From TrEMBL:
Pfam family, one: ACOX
Source organism of this protein record: Gossypium raimondii (Peruvian cotton)
Cofactor: FAD
Protein name: Acyl-coenzyme A oxidase
All copies of domain Acyl-CoA oxidase C-terminal, residue ranges: 531-669
Amino acid sequence: MEPSQKVEDKSQPSIATVTRRIQRLSLHLIPLPPLQCSPQLDMLTCAKANKQEVDVASLSSYMRGKHREIQEKIFDFFNSRPDLQTPTEISMKEHRELCLRQLLGLVREGKIKPFRYVVEDPAKYFAISEAVGSIDISLGIKFGVQYSLWGGSVLNLGTKKHRDKYFDGIDNLDYLGCFAMTELHHGSNVQGLQTVATFDPITDEFIIDTPNDGAIKWWIGNAAVHGKFATVFARLVLPTHDSKGVSDMGVHAFIVPIRDLKTHQPLPGIEINDCGHKIGLNGVDNGALRFRSVRIPRDNLLNRFGDVTRDGKYTSSLPTINKRFAATLGELVGGRVGLAHSSVGILKIAVTIAVRYSLLRQQFGPPKQPEVSILDYQSQQHKLMPMLASTYAFHFATQYLVEKYSEMKKTHDEQLVGDVHALSAGLKSYVTSFTAKSLSTCREACGGHGYAAVNRFGTLRNDHDIFQTFEGDNTVLLQQVAADLLKQYKDKFQGGALSVTWSYLRESMNTYLSQPNPVTARWESEDHLRDPKFQLDAFRYRTSRLLQSVAARLQKHTKTLGSFGAWNRCLNHLLTLAESHIESVILAKFIEAVQNQAALKLLCDLYALDRIWKDIGTYRNVDYVAPNKAKAINKLTQYLSFQVRNIAGEFIDAFDLPPYILRAPIAMQSEAYSQYTQLVGF
């Protein structure tokens, strides 16, 4: 269509819609005069896009789910306590003390007691965690260290005697604790930890030792200032009567008091140092721990999967070190589930601020015409609309992960444990990596105003960055997903059953082994491209192709390089495979969540087609998509982006985030800011 052609303007929002949006925004802001509609939208060639109606209240209720009430309770508590809201400028020492006061206030004054939900109702626990993290990510991490890591290790790795002794103190924050796994020389390789716990049968105690500098526990949250206990992961060593003298039973977890409960001074043999100022999360007091012959009672061994008798004999229901290690780490997978879930919450905040800014910020326009909203530019839509669609996709995928994790905690089904382990590894890696990149994109999309500290982008980006590393480095986690896929692939050809998440491989592998259909490869109608079957088939075809090809490459290279060398040679291929599989899972869950809701269907289609277009080379290389079909996918993706742009305000409103979360943690610091910058969250 030529720019000079007059088109019917169906994209221009009605006065009622604009008024409603302004009224909603006014809850966040000081009163402003009504915004006028932009007649220059008539000039946009894509203005024929039909604007869909969105029932924001209904969509918000669907998104927030049954735990909305407790999240609102948390938001209301902090909204009523300005003294507990994190200011833009704050020193590390002040931030740490504020984080502790925030946590104490939430639990003791706000009456939020989350500890029992760690096991009883994980979905409710993660809902609480998401809300807490949106107040201040440092608070969210301190909260997680206390309840999910320190508390979770007691509940999941200990037995009744440990729960009886420590539950109340952890719950009411009398027993602030740490999770001491990472060492200076070992992070991802937990089996390589060097801290030693040697049993002394004479005194019926374990002696905790740090044998060298590389074994110093490092980056331990709550250790530098506030922690009183630590769950310490160490190699359990038993004395023997043979020539070796000792027997290494592998890595186990021990409860080690690190500070006196009355004086708060470090206990004898405990050396504590401060890891200092970090890129982000400076409200969390990360410290380093060294143990010099620290004695603890034998009962302090968290003995669910392995125990030591009074006479020094080791007992376990699991026959090997590897099985005990796998069982131990399997019980700690909740940390990954929580990070994936919280990362989506952070993405919602950033997307909301960036989209709101882009809707209201105006720059340039046709000659002698008013300036247009920057979200009317295709480049801005390309940055933000697929991101908005992905935020919704990740929401439903992580909700599914939480559901599977909750089911696993109730049933302890062995197959489900393995499925959740791989799924949590993949989603944690994929979602946190995407969010990290998106935070920078959102900052850039808001131009110079995005660089102001009060808008939260800098804090969000710096605080979230470490999500890509802790609870498992993202590259390492993707390799775990790839390894599980290869195991499933091998089992398939040996007649084994595929676990739930991977079951689609049975059909799609058969499809892969046949040639692409030359007829469907050329179908380019909108109905076909928006058909969930086409979208999901395309995702799964790509995953199956990657799986078959990398399996063949590994087999080939193993003959000359050995298994380790072959894996390293194919590593980038393996990472691409894992990401492709996780994208297939995300899309499948998004499709299930649509439930005939036209607005969600629009977002789902945009997510799917944007991902296909971004990897169009893969589909073109094997003729899965013909050239004209590829062009049609690109055009439709742009069209859908504009449709989403028309109702982007409604989509971000459905997140229903409180005003002070979006605006800033403190009042504006400069009179130079206009009403406009106040309006959009700066």
